[in-house]
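Example record

One chain of 510 residues, shown exactly as stored in the release files.
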Amino acid sequence: MATDTPQPPLAANPSWFTPKRLLVMFCIINLLNYVDRGAIASNGVNGSRQTCTKGGTCSSGSGIQGDFNLSNFEDGILSSAFMVGLLVSSPIFASLAKSVNPFRLIGVGLSVWTFATAGCGFSFNFWSITIFRMLVGVGEASFISLAAPFIDDNAPVAQKTAWLGAFYMCIPTGIAVGYVYGGLVGQFNWRIAFWGEAILMLPFAILGFVMKPLQLKGFSPAGSKKASTLQDGPEDQVSNVEDGELSTSEAADQNSKPFGTPCILFRLTVAWNASIFTRFWEDMKILLLDKVYVVNVLGYIAYNFVIGAYSYWGPKAGYNIYHMSNADIMFGGVTVVCGILGTLAGGFVLDLITSTISNAFKLLSFATLFGAIFCFTSFCFKSLYAFLALFSIGELLVFATQAPVNFVCLHTVKPSLRPLSMAMSTVSIHIFGDVPSSPLVGLIQDRINNWRVSALILTSILFLAAGIWFIGVFLHSEDKFNDDSNHPVPTVGKSDTTPLLEEKRTEEMA
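Predicted structure tokens for this chain:
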């Protein structure tokens, strides 16, 4: 086993930087990402547009909507503008991970995020804050697609999904904290909320540049000569340039032409860009032809379709069906508690029954099925207390899918494809899931004008998600965590413990 190989001393790495501290650091960053989402949502709920009477007397509005005099449509755009940057940039960052150190990419992304959130606080009209919200998505894209593979590399073998569960537990927690944070700070000035986020994220952005860059499993160190020997054609020339070397023929050609250097650099730049796109489409074909991956993402899309609409329409539906005076607090409280407990439980249960792809699909399908039954039944009761009890159990089961579904995304592909796998999963669940679900549910409600029926129609889609994931149980699956064959990028090592923080002695010699 790889773990039997003698390990070099850790003197080359910061003594304080351990796998558990890496997890804590990434959890804090993820928490801040979703605090920002909660804060902007809180402003949308608590902000109001200025109103004018027939006599011409106008009252000042509050929040972003009041300061910029936004319509409800424009205010709604702000809450989802970050999606544009996130969806466009996620595949780009995932592809760049093959030529740029992934840890440094996270540093770049967090720097963009810090700049963008601070910019939101300095914005002066609708278009300026919209652009900054898009840049927030760009910054988040680098972290979302690369953080999970780093955690997967460093987690102990018997606790991989538990660590992923801890990471994704920050999603409901962050949104809830952000909602409270945005509401409290917004009482003074909504701009302060964004400046506070930027200040909290700044140390992590700096750390991404000053700390020794970590390496993902399945990727060779940047500038490695070993990597360049495995490339051919244009990529070989690009690798040699990155190493500061040119072949003899290239050097002769450079000396024989007065403008040789610019021409060569231009040709190599074009060839490098072409190789990036070619490699991206080749990797995409691998993902799209992988039945296990496609089934997992399809189930995730159906699941996120429901969860996204729940988060947007849940409080309003609860208010109309059960006449809750504090529907947002009740739904928020249930979601936070069930989100934390359910996400952590899903990771621990999968580790307990042995974290394999087949077991992950079993947990996904059965947890979602029983969660759908409880959630569907809850809306059938007229009693508020019966609804809250059943809906809480349902959400607890539904949130248990977070760690297993991402475990499948990470382990059904080769290590070098994990960033792209996570990026395309994120893009898919948003484009086909929570982005269209809220307006579609609103359209249904406009037609039937019955929130109970609309909620039941929405919840029934969870049965579809359970059915799709159940198909995955019968598919032939192979855990490819240690599979790096037939791929042009050599791996760093196959240690099952801390491959990012402990370098192999053989690599140091090389």
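Notes: Residues 240 and 365 are 49 Å apart (CA to CA).
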